Amino acid sequence: MRPNFLMIGAPKAATTAICHHLGQHPDVFISYPKEPFFFCYDHVWAKGWDWYESLFDGAEGHTAVGEGTTINANAATYPNALPRIAEHLPDAKIIYAVREPLERIRSYWMELHSQGTITLPFNRAVREDEQLIDTSRYHAQLAGYRKHFPDDRIHIVFYEEFSRDADAVLSGIFEFLGVDPSVKIEDADKPRYTSDNKRRDLALTNVLRKGLPGFYKLRDLAPKGLREAAKKLLKRPIPGKPEWEPDTLAWVKDQLADDTAAFLASMSKPLDYWDKKPKPANGSDTPTDAARSAAA
């Protein structure tokens, strides 16, 4: 079986939390792993359709079947993803999550740095590793998909709206996918997959990731206490969120200004939508649990 919907991005815009919650709906099936990287990584594509379809074993009887590779929209880095998706899944529905671009970049660097994928310090990485900025060019990333998929098959999710009212956002996605939108997901507003307390992989960890068959499955099956102990042994803490250098911040804002304006206009959002930093639903200046949890 092949999927009939894809979460294509953006990284660190609540995609992992959303996919987890979608998978709790009785009529929705999410692949394991949630990000197979089939369309974007050539070496995974080479595994073939039998391998990819095996990820959806057990999906029979589900109305909505999907996966959530969040770099499928990043055409600058992975130019083969969209052509492959458009050719082989032409009727798929597309979900795309967005987040205030600057905070998303910072959170994404923390994620990649924790994995050892990016080793450069934050401000240098932003200038030298194009994927950090490209994944915040929401208008450009969606433009390619809109050439192949009509607007009624593309659903945009705002991280900020999910943070304030996860139930409403999930209901909207369920309706888009053609499943019962009244289903409530337990603990949808609870912390999940946060960027807080991230730890960076040691060299040994990378060796295990790449060389140990079934590494992720073994990790997920291990008792929580064992996973936490292994994390402390195999990962080094990242001390807090990185700070923007003023020159780098100004440069990034300039790089993203036109794209962000075009995207917000296309969504009928005010140009200062991400400047307002609205208070959470509880009326305080303290982030809600959902706001803290949606950073995956």
Description:
- With 296 residues, the chain is α/β, with parallel strands linked by helices.
- It has 15 helices and seven strands.
- It is globular.
Lay out the secondary structure.
Blueprint: E1 5-9, H1 15-22, E2 28-30, H2 42-45, H3 49-54, E3 64-67, H4 81-88, E4 93-98, H5 101-115, H6 122-128, H7 130-134, H8 138-146, E5 154-158, H9 159-164, H10 166-177, E6 199-201, H11 203-211, H12 215-221, H13 224-234, E7 235-237, H14 246-266, H15 289-293
Parallel strand pairs: 1-3, 1-4, 2-3, 4-5
Antiparallel strand pairs: 6-7
Sheet/helix structural class: alpha/beta
How far the N terminus sits from the C terminus, by CA atoms, comes to: 27 Å
Strand order of the largest sheet: 2-3-1-4-5
Instruction: Give the percentage of residues in beta strands.
Output: 5-15%
How would the global form be characterised?
globular
Number of strands: 7
User: Helical content, roughly?
Assistant: 40-55%
Low-confidence residue ranges = 277-296
Q: Tell me, rounded to a whole number, the average pLDDT.
A: 87
H/E element order: EHEHHEHEHHHHEHHEHHHEHH
Largest β sheet strand count, sense and barrel closure: 5 strands, parallel
Radius of gyration: 19 Å
Tally the helices: 15
